[in-house]
Amino acid sequence: MTARRLHSDQGQTLAIYIWLTGILLFVAFAFFAFAQAASARNGAQSAADAAALAAAQDARAELVDGLELSIGGGDDWLDWLAGDKVTGVGARDAANALAAENDSTVVGLGATEVNGYPGFRVEIETTYTVGDSIIPGTESQHAKADATAIVRPRCDVAPSAEPEKSVEFECDGGEAFEIDPEDFELGDLPDASVLFSVHLAD
Questions:
Q1: What 3 state SS string does the chain have?
Q2: Number of neighbouring beta carbons within 10 Å of residue 99
Q3: What is the domain range of residue 22?
Q4: How far apart are CA 80 and CA 125, in angstroms?
Q5: Which distant-in-sequence residues (6+ apart) come within 8 Å of 35 by Cβ?
Q6: What is the pLDDT of residue 147?
Q7: How far apart (Å, rounded) are the C-alpha atoms in residues 148 and 115?
Q8: Furthest CA-CA distance within the chain
Q9: What is the dihedral of CA 61, 62, 68, 71, to 10 degrees?
Q10: How many domains does the chain have?
Q11: What is the pLDDT of residue 12?
Q12: Which residue among 41, 70, 72, 186 is least enclosed by CB atoms within 10 Å?
C-alpha cells in the first residue's frame, strides 16, 4: 500500500467520523429538546391538577359553611348536604393561588358536572417557556394543560327525611351521624372530608 493510498483512507475515515459525530450530536440535542418539552408538559399538568383541586376544595368549604348556617335556619340544609348548593364564588381565587405557586396562570375556569357531581375545569399556562432548543420557537412557547376536579357528597340521607326534624345519615366508611335542627350548635358537624370528598375527575 502506497503512502498516498493510506493518506486517502485516513481522509475518508475522518470524514465518516465527523459525519457520524454530527448525527449523534443532532440526535442528542433532539432528545434534549423532547425532554424539555416533556418536563414543561408535566409541570403544566401538575399545576392544572393543583389549581382544579384548589377550586373544588374551596367549593367544599363553601358547602360546609352553608350547611352549618342553614341547619335550624331553613328547610334547605339537606340540599347543602347533597352538594346541590355549590356556587364556586371563591373557586377562581383559590385556583389562581395554587397556579401561581406552580409558576402558572389560570387562563380558563368554569363550573362543570361529572357523573352528577359538581366540579370545576381549569385551564392553565405556565409562566416559564419550554426553553431554547434545536426546535425553532420553543424559547417563547409556554406549556398548557387542563384538569377537572369534583366535589362528591359522601353521606346518604333517606328520601323521606324531613329537614325540620332530627335526621340520621350514614357516610362512606360506615360512620353514622344525627343532626337535630332543634339542638344544633356551630361546630357540631364532622370534618369536611367526612362529608365531601374532593378528587380529580377520571
A1: CCHHHHHHHHHHHHHHHHHHHHHHHHHHHHHHHHHHHHHHHHHHHHHHHHHHHHHHHHHHHHHHHHHHHHCCCCCCHHHHHCCCCCCCCCHHHHHHHHHHHCCEEEEEEEEEEECCEEEEEEEEEEEEECCCCCCCCHHHCEEEEEEEEEEEECEEECCCCCCCCCEEEEECCCCEEEECHHHCCCCCCCCHHHHEEEEECC
A2: 27
A3: 3-200
A4: 33
A5: none
A6: 96
A7: 12
A8: 111
A9: -150
A10: 1
A11: 63
A12: 186
Q: CB neighbours of 113 closer than 8 A, spacing ≥ 6?
A: 119
pLDDT in tens, the chain (202 residues): 455 554 555 556 766 666 666 665 555 555 555 555 556 687 889 999 999 999 999 999 999 999 998 987 766 889 999 999 898 899 999 999 999 999 999 999 999 999 999 999 999 998 887 654 445 545 557 789 999 999 999 998 888 888 888 888 889 988 888 888 888 887 788 899 999 999 999 7
Q: Which three cell numbers stand for residue 26?
A: 443532532
What sign results for the dihedral spanned by CA atoms 52, 150, 108, 133?
A: positive
